[in-house]
Design goal:
Blueprint: H1 2-9, H2 25-38, H3 43-54, H4 61-89, H5 95-103, H6 106-139, H7 146-162, H8 165-196, H9 210-216, H10 224-234, H11 243-246, H12 255-284, H13 295-303, H14 309-342, H15 360-376, H16 381-410, H17 415-439, H18 441-473, E1 485-491, H19 497-508, E2 513-520, H20 523-536, E3 541-546, H21 553-566, E4 570-580, H22 583-586, H23 592-601, E5 606-614
Parallel strand pairs: 1-2, 1-4, 2-3, 4-5
């Protein structure tokens, strides 16, 4: 197992080498921006899913597309500007959670933290599902393989991220840049053919599918609710924008400056590509059903006159960027969960770093929960999207509201301008969050809306537990541990070297009193152990306990209770001899000691000592 771990994960990295694991801007862009950039591959499609599928307004959908895309782009500028200020104000990372904690209090910070964690889990599920859909659009494999392929992609991403942020970033950087160049090429070539050469026609729905033809015949009018739902679907293009502010400590120095530059580049790429794809879609009119190729695939085929080299580069890079978009979540979920765990609101295991200076428990937990979502929703991206945006904009809102309080509290230079920017950001993102939860409530937005408060309650319960433990364990300099008498109880079965060594160890503890306890199931077994006791001349008192129903734990607990009743100030040390063999054969032996130790752990005034007997030892002196 150790060899396999080293092959997959790599050799351990010393804590002293942490500075060398920081990443430059060219690597940080694909690591922290791949989620946001990847949304250009599906955000336009998701707007059209509502306008064409749910509103059924046919060709009129494409007249609504560009105005919605422009509004989303304006919102992007507001959010990017706001988060740039957050990066300089809070260079320690943590994004919305840290900003809310410092300025709004514990409960808002836990809401922000819950929202972000839900967002990161959904990022993995949505990105992987979208990537597999892109490659299915090109290759055309059966939909029954969607979930297995999704899970395989999650596994590969998990192993890569367990190797460390620097290695995974270097591995995933080339596909991100290839996607950006491919998409920009598609947009430029498409716009030139549409507006300059004027030698391209809209996509014929009849060449796509019967469902596409039916969608093109829609003539209904659109309601305000469906228009808002379409807008909220397009707003998923902003998902992942906060990732850079959460991961500032991962950048090379100067961290804040490099992070802010990366954020600007990300915003420019995201905004231009999203608008470009939406303009192409408005002109080429890619009607598509649920089982058809993606909008980008249909437009690439039309622009490049078939499935040539450029088409395949576009599709493969789309698959890659969507899969790798999950890398943003893998970079930020473990980091954020470690911060929350250090504050005492998540299990402490999330704050532990593994061999590769990675928060390994967070990485594995993220992979498991995302895999469960993929299985439940069968890898269908359109089913996952409604769950997505509410958590994103809740985090945005609390971050911007926290920055408003930050500016009022500190009144730094030009604080009024900064306050105005963040106030506009807070109000805007709050409205979007409300639009998302209202317009998509029945489609699944109720799930994160209900889950986030439940998570907050859970976080507070964990926090109260840790506060209680901390209070109970706190010791003043004047505290002195009370003196207890020492009572040793050795559990024995048949006499062998293991039992004799355990007895000798118990005697060496020099307790006030020592006894051996043997649980027997019949009179014959009782006589046998007593005869062995006399034969080996063992110098401690033997107590036999009858257990006609062959129980082990309950009779022993009863003996210990009786000892406690005699002398309540005793500390009872229970000594358990255990045979230890090779890992491959240990399962052949009864594991009754494990269950007994688990019960004894929760018994007051009781210490449990295992005396291992290494059966494979060549020399008797090496048995213990």
């Amino acid at each position: 197992m150790a060899v396999l771990k080293r092959v997959l994960i790599g050799n351990p990295i010393s804590s002293a080498d942490e500075g060398h694991q920081r990443i430059p801007k060219k690597v940080a862009l694909p690591v922290f921006a791949s989620d946001a950039i990847s949304s250009t591959a599906y955000a336009t499609d998701e707007i059209l899913v509502v306008l064409l599928g749910q509103a059924a307004i046919g060709y009129a959908a494409f007249t609504k597309l560009i105005p919605i895309a422009v509004i989303v782009a304006i919102l992007l500028v507001i959010v990017i500007t706001s988060y740039r200020q957050t990066i300089f104000a809070y260079p320690s990372g943590g994004g919305s959670y840290v900003v809310s904690k410092e300025n709004l209090g514990a409960v808002p910070s836990l809401v922000a933290g819950s929202s972000l964690l839900v967002d990161y889990i959904l990022t993995v599920a949505v990105s992987v599902a979208g990537g597999v859909l892109a490659i299915r659009s090109a290759v055309g494999f059966d939909s029954k393989w969607t979930v297995p392929v999704c899970l395989l992609c999650v596994l590969v991403m998990t192993v890569a991220n367990l190797r460390g942020l620097k290695e995974s970033g270097a591995l995933f950087a080339p596909p991100t840049y290839v996607y950006v160049l491919s998409l920009l090429t598609l947009i430029i070539v498409g716009l030139v053919r549409i507006y300059v050469l004027k030698n391209i026609d809209p996509i014929d729905p009849a060449k796509v599918s019967e469902e596409a033809v039916e969608l093109s015949k829609g003539v209904k009018g659109i309601t305000l609710l469906l228009l808002l739902r379409a807008f909220s679907s397009g707003a998923v293009a902003l998902s992942g924008v906060e990732a850079v502010s959460n991961g500032v400590p991962a950048f090379k120095k100067p961290e804040s400056k490099n992070a802010a530059t990366t954020l600007i580049f990300m915003g420019a790429i995201l905004g231009s590509c999203f608008l470009g794809v939406s303009i192409l879609a408005a002109r080429l009119k890619p009607f598509r059903g649920d089982s058809d190729a993606t909008g980008i695939a249909l437009m690439a085929q039309q622009i490049y006159n078939g499935k040539g080299v450029l088409f395949w580069i576009m599709q493969i890079s789309t698959f890659a960027i969507l899969i790798l978009a999950a890398n943003t979540a893998y970079a930020d979920f473990p980091r954020l969960s470690s911060i929350i765990a250090k504050d005492g609101y998540l299990p402490r295991q999330f704050a532990n770093r593994g061999d590769r200076l990675v928060y390994s428990n967070g990485v594995v937990f993220l992979a498991l929960v995302a895999s469960v979502l993929i299985i439940i929703f069968k890898g269908n991206i359109s089913s996952l999207i409604p769950l997505y945006a509410f958590g994103v904009f809740t985090g945005f809102t609390l971050s911007q509201a926290g920055m408003v309080v930050h500016h009022i509290r500190l009144k730094e230079p030009r604080w009024r301008l900064s306050l105005a920017i963040n106030a506009i950001g807070a109000v805007t993102t709050l409205l979007i969050a409300l639009i998302v939860v209202i317009s998509k409530f029945t489609e699944g937005a109720w799930i994160p809306a209900a889950l986030i408060p439940i998570m907050v309650v859970g976080f507070r319960a964990i926090g109260k537990h840790y506060d209680f433990v901390r209070e109970r364990l706190h010791a003043d300099p004047s505290y002195r541990a009370p003196r207890h008498t020492h009572y040793a109880v050795v559990l024995v079965g048949k006499i062998n070297k293991g039992v004799l060594n355990a007895i000798q160890y118990a005697i060496s503890l020099n307790p006030e009193r020592i006894i051996a306890v043997c649980v027997v199931t019949s009179p014959e077994e009782e006589r046998e152990i007593q005869d062995q006791w006399e034969e080996f001349d063992i110098p401690i008192e033997l107590h036999t306990v009858s257990s006609p129903y062959r129980e082990l734990t309950r009779p022993i607990m009863k003996v210990l209770d009786e000892i406690d009743a005699e002398r309540q100030d005793d500390i009872i040390t229970v000594v358990i001899p255990e045979s230890v063999t090779k890992v491959s054969s240990q399962w052949l032996h009864k594991q009754s000691a494990l269950a007994l130790k688990a019960r004894l752990l929760y018994r007051p005034h009781t210490v449990v000592v295992s005396v291992p007997i290494h059966v494979e030892a060549e020399d008797d002196n090496e048995l213990i």
